[in-house]
Amino acid sequence: MGNIDFGGSLDDDDGSVALVRGKLVGDQAEGLLLWTHPTWVSNGYIEGVYDLTNFMIPGRTYTPNQRDHISGEYGLFPDSCYGIGCIWCGDVTFKIIIRSQGIPDFTLVGPTRLNCEDTHNAFDAYIPSQFTGRPIKVVLRVDAGDESTLDHAGWKDVVLSRG
In terms of CATH, what superfamily is 16-162? Predict the structure, then answer.
């Protein structure tokens, strides 16, 4: 386990992440998605850490305020289901975590477990007040659970906005 290359192979047993065009199960619209597959071991995971410390908005460095929120969608890809009646399918847990030095990590979204029955979710969550005015990192995380087979999970239209 360790770091993996962005945009690598979609079938690397160390885990994989890439931008792909497609749609999530239960989603009507095709779009650009962040495709992920956790490490191929029991209780493996994959996470992307987005450091907003040096993120610039016109004229200044970004720090969150109480009106800032993160929205988007997450779910499983159609190839996460295999067999007649979807006998085998992906089973993952999604989380979005906010990190800042000197403050305990905060789970902003989730943990939400998705499998054959529950394959797609939308979210819109405000950044908590303890992070107002502080540099933050946003972590998108997918946990494989006991079995990582077919855990093809994706993030769609994840946006940080104010207001």
Answer: GOLD domain (2.60.120.680)
